[in-house]
Amino acid sequence: MLQQTDMPNPTAPEDNDRPLRPALLRGWRCRCPNCGAGPMMRGYLTVRDACPVCSQNLHHHRADDGPAYLTILIVGHLMAPLMLFVFTRFRPDPLIAASVFSVGCVALSLFLLPRLKGAMVAVQWAKRMHGFGADARD
Question: What percent of the residues of the chain are helix, what percent strand, and what percent coil, each to the nearest 5?
Fold first, then answer.
């Protein structure tokens, strides 16, 4: 018969959990989720194979299309109400409004995309997903 102490607690953190919040903040800054000192990206969106500072392997990540979907979701939810407000309140010329909001959408997308990719890689690292939990440095 199982006693209450023998049953695993699903809400209890594991002994080897990595802190999520610092990892997310480091990932948002496009830094290594482990040390926060090394750059995570080799280019605009290319994740390095390993951190040059702490040698944390980063090649396990599976960000795929997630950052692009999140970018579209955030930009759409910010810009659509703003466009509606500006159009109903100020009635700008449609060509000017389209030009300004197109530049705004592109700029916001270019700003968010690498940061959201860094945050997704950091979440995967913190939760030990996709091979990040195999070893202390993997």
Answer: 50, 5, 45
